[in-house]
Amino acid sequence: MARSQTAKAGGQGALDALSRRFGERLTTVDSERQRHGVDESYHEPMPPDAVLWPESTDEVSAAVEICARTSTPVVAYGAGTSLEGHVAALRGGICIDMTRMNRIIAVRPEDLDVTVEAGVTRRQLNDKLQPQGFFFPVDPGADATLGGMAATRAAGTTTIRYGSMRDNVLGLTVVLADGQVIHTGGRARKSSAGYDLTRLFVGSEGTLGIITELILRIQGTPEGMTAAVCAFPSIEAAVTCVVRAIQLGVPMARAEFLDERWLAAVNQRSGLDYAIAPTVFFEFHGSQAGVVEQAEEVGGIASELGGTDFQWAMKQEDRSRLWQARHEAHYAALATRPGSRALLTDVCVPLSRLAECIVKTREDIDASFVTGMMLGHVGDGNFHVSFVLDPESSEELEEARRLNRVLVQRALDMGGTCTGEHGIGYGKGEFLEAEHGAAVEVMRSIKRALDPNSILNPGKITEAVPRD
Length: 468
Description:
This protein is α+β, with helices and mostly antiparallel strands. It folds into four domains: 9-99, 2-Layer Sandwich (Uridine Diphospho-n-acetylenolpyruvylglucosamine Reductase, domain 2), CATH 3.30.43; 104-220, Uridine Diphospho-n-acetylenolpyruvylglucosamine Reductase, domain 3 (2-Layer Sandwich); 224-330, Alpha-Beta Plaits, CATH 3.30.70.2190; 331-423, Alpha-Beta Plaits (2-Layer Sandwich), CATH 3.30.70. Helix content is 37%, strand content 21%. The chain contains 17 helices and 18 strands. It has helices spanning 9-22, 30-35, 57-69, 122-129, 146-151, 159-162, 165-168, 197-201, 235-247, 260-270, 288-304, 316-327, 329-335, 351-366, 394-413, 432-436, 439-450; strands spanning 26-27, 50-52, 74-77, 94-97, 104-108, 113-117, 134-135, 169-175, 181-185, 210-217, 219-220, 224-231, 252-258, 279-286, 308-313, 341-348, 371-377, 382-389. It has a seven-stranded antiparallel beta sheet, sandwiched between helices. A hairpin with a 5-residue loop joins strand 8 (169-175) and strand 9 (181-185).
């Protein structure tokens, strides 16, 4: 894939101007460039030509304005935890690292909202909120920045109860491709005033603007919380238990499925001893009496489906250990094959087709020569496959890509999506038109209108080039 060379022609002018404006907060040191060109995925790292650390919206605006004058590409960077090559500088340019914009501007408990800068992380915000009896519910596992989570429309283990970033962002401050600053949405809980620009930028992966501040919903900490782990005789039984509980209106906070391969990996890494079988991790939030009732109802459904070994985690430390183990599942998978890299993919399908989709995907993996394991936020129809690969084997990579294409096509045929929460980046660009058809040209029109010179994270989403 060809890259522009920022150090030439107009790009050198941008570097000179940024250096005069920001001094030592702009660097071309190779180690920093390399670090900012890679995420958690298997995709080829592509470093920017320079890295900049702004400290305010005004500074982001000034930097983008300089880059706009010279058509220099700009890639926003948070924690680097994305999975589809979102931060790869495909055409060189300037990486704008948002991590120094990490101020919690306002906490308004009476309105259940907060205003934060884009570099604030999920854990940082929750550490601030916890003593006051509140929390921010979106939990993708990684300690990602909230700006990055909004840009990728992140979701996670609690989506079944609290929704994704789409549902929890009330308003944004955004720097556009020419350096102009706009504010979208607001603190009112509903509005009919004009287009919903907030949701346009949530999930735009830095291709339409750079998010610098966010207004977010927060939640009161529930009086009661309990968690449980249940093993099932089959994948179908495990998924069916969750779907049936949802259909009966049981308000679960989390329902995380792991197949036996991934559970074995998690056991080994985290020192757990759960039965090696298709398993669901549950969590319930509410009143003390309510969580007991919810858990008992799900336990009854699980028993009818052959679920066994229903283990409770009532204490905070036990719940924390359970979910920490779940959140480290990616690294547990890699540990099963030292030196490996993972092609980690996701799809999302209607709940009625979820068990079928997972079972057929397991059959495909079992018939292949690559190692694959599955887990998912089965309460919202989203599941992940991790292909644990030898990074030196092109055969394994191509086979994993083939299986990924089969999986995505199956999900689309079932009325689902090529990605529930990983996003498109450039890794899943080949699937966008298959899913959206003519609507992709509408997306391209929006991109051209807001970023006519294509300087904002170029080569991603609608500009992604399909793989051979």
